[in-house]
Amino acid sequence: MDGFGNNLQHPYPLKGSKGASLPPRPTLVFLIALFGLYVCYLSFNQIRMESKHVEENGAQEQDEHVCAKPYVPSEELPYVHFPKPKGYSRAECSCNPVRFFVIVSMQRSGSGWFETLLNSHPNISSNGEIFNRVDRRQNISSIVQTLDKLYDLDWLTSAAKNECTAAFGFKWMLNQGFMDHHDEILSYLNKKGVSVIFLFRRNTLRRLISVLANNYDRDAKQLNGTHKSHVHSEEEAEILAKFKPELDVSTLVSNIRDVEKYMGDCLDSFNTTRRMILYYEDIIRNRNVLFQVQEFLGVPVRKLVSRQVKIHTRPLPDLVRNWEDVNSRLNRTEYARFLDGADYVK
Ligand SMILES: *[C@@H]1O[C@H](CO)[C@@H](O)[C@H](O)[C@H]1NC(C)=O
Ligand SMILES: *[C@@H]1O[C@H](CO)[C@@H](O)[C@H](O)[C@H]1NC(C)=O
Ligand SMILES: *[C@@H]1O[C@H](CO)[C@@H](O)[C@H](O)[C@H]1NC(C)=O
Ligand SMILES: *[C@@H]1O[C@H](CO)[C@@H](O)[C@H](O)[C@H]1NC(C)=O
Ligand SMILES: *[C@@H]1O[C@H](CO)[C@@H](O)[C@H](O)[C@H]1NC(C)=O
């Protein structure tokens, strides 16, 4: 981004010629008058150049001249945008800067809930899992095309707030092409000025239980014949939580290790982004984390709310059919910390 301050040199030659003896008076008057004319000519030229400059650089440049620039720390300037959607006008908010963001997460890590929290803010628009459609992530060119369209703000979903959106993004699961094309995606995000929120779950064991329970419900459709990944009432949560999956103990440790490595590789690959690393458990325990998120996104800080209700609220032994086996398998491993990890609040 440029367009901040123009760098024209001072046009007037300030240094006089030293040591010359003064010419006669009429000549002096004439010279001064001539100099005056020259100054006028220079200024006139400069004005003409400036207006030409504005015309050539089109609407964006012009808007920046008209808009009172909000204060943005210089290191954040690459992450602040003034998009011009084709489908609608940003109207009275066209001078408000917009931050682009992406929530990078894994299935069953609370990202759906997190997104409903963000969308309860009038200036945040998070547009769901746009890469769940395979054709949008077929290859890096279809990914880039999708991202470009999205960040032009010409992407209308139910999360759209239109003109007064100040933070615009979506969520992206690691297994939706994100890690397959990580080099290209990294350079895209940095070039485009996209801020990244990583949202993971510390307790990989609980996540695994949630994955299995959700897979089960996909077939069983326990809520009156519909499959639900997220629920809005305690009754619904209770019905879904009744199912206790049985974990495959023989692959449990390698399964957890793979997931941990996947998250670690992701954080390494994207360590040069403007980013914030969040854990689901931390948000549950301390809602102040949500204030930090809003500061990170440059929106006015307020209380965020979600209508979603947590499904698995019980201690772990109540959630798994073969708890004894699971406990003794993990008990003496580095993953023993997951066994008593309570992420529920009552
Ligand atoms: C990328 O995928 C799209 C379909 O999403 C396809 O139309 C296009 O031909 C592919 N491009 C390349 C370079 O493979
Ligand atoms: C947030 O949205 C409101 C209208 O809903 C608008 O008045 C305000 O300027 C917006 N704030 C930012 C930072 O864009
Ligand atoms: C299922 O349907 C019955 C009757 O139609 C209704 O009373 C009940 O609330 C529904 N349950 C859920 C979990 O949607
Ligand atoms: C990012 O991670 C790589 C290892 O994957 C490391 O070499 C590099 O120093 C890290 N960069 C930053 C800025 O932390
Ligand atoms: C680990 O297992 C041993 C024996 O099975 C048991 O005595 C101990 O209490 C277990 N520790 C935890 C933290 O569950």
UniProtKB/TrEMBL annotation:
Annotated coiled-coil segments of the chain: none
UniProt keywords, alphabetically: Membrane, Transferase, Transmembrane, Transmembrane helix
Sulfotransferase domain boundaries: 101-306
Molecular-function GO terms, alphabetical: sulfotransferase activity
EC number: 2.8.2.-
Record carries keyword S-adenosyl-L-methionine: no
Pfam annotation, one family: Sulfotransfer_1
Membrane-crossing segments per the record: 27-44
Sequence similarity: Belongs to the sulfotransferase 1 family.
Protein name per Swiss-Prot or TrEMBL: Sulfotransferase
Origin species: Triticum aestivum
Gene that this sequence comes from: LOC123187746
